[in-house]
Amino acid sequence: MSIRSLFASKHRRLEANLDAYLDDALEGHEMERFLAHLAVCDACARRVEDGRRLKTLFASLPELPA
Length: 66
Description:
This protein is 76% helix and 0% strand. The chain is mainly α and 66 residues long.
């Protein structure tokens, strides 16, 4: 396995944790790995910021009547 494919595999696994991170559902080693990845991956850091903006936007929308 090449270094590039190893990094891509790790990147996909960490990317899959994005929603859990935004929902404050990551713990322990998963959180540590995710934060370490964010520190070196601008693409994922941008996705986290985009996700935070979306959560803020959705939270500001009025609730629809039932």
